[in-house]
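Dear colleagues,

As part of the handover before I leave the project, I'm documenting each prediction I ran so the next person doesn't have to rerun anything. This entry is a single chain, and its sequence is reproduced below.
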Amino acid sequence: MGNTEDAELLRQVILGNEEALLALYRRHASYVHALARRILRDKDEAKNVVQETFLRIWNKAEYFDPELETPRTGREWPRWS
């Protein structure tokens, strides 16, 4: 699966498709976890980062333009903190 498939999954997340979010999670969670664990050096905190990352994808999906792989123009990109 490549960026095209991810963009389509994100389109589905924007429409409220939980299965699409699950597919993105299955595809990217281990990478997010490994990166967070490397940076934080804490297994439990890395798990929290993964959970928070995908929760924010779900809650903020409408701000992302799947075609451009960037935030939509004309809107302020939401702050993640």
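The chain is about 65% helix and 5% strand. The first strand starts at residue 64 and ends at 65.

All the best with the project,
I.
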